[in-house]
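User: Can you fold this complex?
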Amino acid sequence: MLLRIAPEMFIDERFECVTVKEVHDEIVQTTKFKSKYPWTRDLKNKIKPLSVPQSKKDEIEHYFSTISALINYGIINKTTGRLFDLSFPDRKIAANTLVLGCKISSGDKDLVTFCRQEFPKEFNGAVSPLGIIIHWIEQGLIIWDDTKQKYLSDWSENREHPQPDKVKATFKKLTGRKYEGS
Amino acid sequence: MSWNGSKIKSRTKELGLTLLKVAEKLEVTRQTVNKWIGGQVPRGQHLVSLCRILDTKPDYFFSPVADSLISVPQHRTVRKKRETLEMKNASYELAEQYLNLFRQAPSPIMIPVVRIKERNNENAQKLAEQLRFIAKIPQGKPFDFKFAFKLLYELGIYAIFRSFPDSFKKNIYAFYSKICDQRVVFINSDTNILDLIFQLLHETVHAIRDEQTTLVYDEEEENFCDLVANYTQFPGEYVTNVSLCIDGCGPGMIINKLKDVSSKNAHSIFGICARLKAIGKYPNISIGGADTNLKRGFHTIEEILFENNDPRQYIKMLKELSPLFINLISKQLPDCSEKKFAEWLGLGTSIDAKAVMEELQRAKE
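Assistant: Here's the predicted assembly.
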């Protein structure tokens, strides 16, 4: 959970992170965040969903309709051979990402593969949470210390999605500490 | 849903464009556009641009009705009014979230279909007897909610629990839908179990009747489903016993006795009163707020499923109430995303999807 490491991530532009209303609602309302991550309670005010101008909203809506039409038609994931089945929040994330030119940070492989397969031109790729931390450190936005390392070790306890090996190696090189999760 | 590529041609002509011009604007070859016209669905990025160039929405190119993968017949609300179009559309959208899940499901099992020409009292009683036999409910016992779910299971009908959208959550406790030839009953998880029994039986009858060629509202069919549901829930023997129990009592005592018997057998007072009235007993009986008071002692489906917010308990309960559905989604593990998994189960804010997924995976192993 990046928010604990950089509470300003959604309100300070320098962190280059945005989230959508659906994810905001999930963090604020669901049991997972209330019971598993009780600290989110104190950081509620720091989670501001993305605000976009009307012109962009129309475009996002257009992408959202296209994505929904394709999913309901039954597009096959060429990697797995199964049908793509994105949830409502994931369709919103995809639409926003494609219109705003962001990268996605998600453990959901289907979402990333869908964007890559169907929108290769617009999609800017995915970035792992640990990759974002590295970027912040490199930009001088955060200083890595024992507290942050402790927060990071909670990721493995909560069985967060695995981080890429290459990124884990860069993290060790940069901070002198090991990422303990998978 | 099917792709209707020929519309590219007609729309292009309508706008006074040429296919070559469209291809140029999209930065693809004319052959690529021809493939789309011939039936190949464009990639998302091309579809977005194509819609812009041809000034249309993506749905324009897809025909939802042609192959009828999803049907949601227009039924009625709890107050016996016809569903509004808004409610019907919202029901369809809810069913649509399960389209790809059922597309990848095993072929539907043989489900009995009841074809009754005359929708009369005698046939309703006969059908009710058959349903009670299928559910293996002891003779003379009224249906409780667990038997109602058992009946769905025995008939191969999927039960899906969701918190219904605001547009119809107060008006509909459950509705029947057919998705990829699979019969599905969606249940509003905010519903009290006493309210749910009759509605589940009503939707079960819809599911096995399945002889409507159109999806329009049929008042006679609704009344017939009600009649069968009534006979199924309250067998004649039980109604006679209740009648004997309250015979000769004053109005206050009647309500008290009905409350006792309803509480003991886990059904609504309203339901048994309706059956008593149907046999000409106590036509002027008024139950006032007795049913509301009685329901306070019973849970909603959500309260039963999410008791203690314990994933293990949740899976256990779901296996008991909806074994077909839980089997179906357990087959999707571990490939489905957490968000989609949470959507299928309507987990909302109650319980952590990841913990439920892990629990289900453990149960599978």
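Chain A has a mean pLDDT of 89. Residues 107 and 161 of chain A are 6 Å apart (CA to CA).
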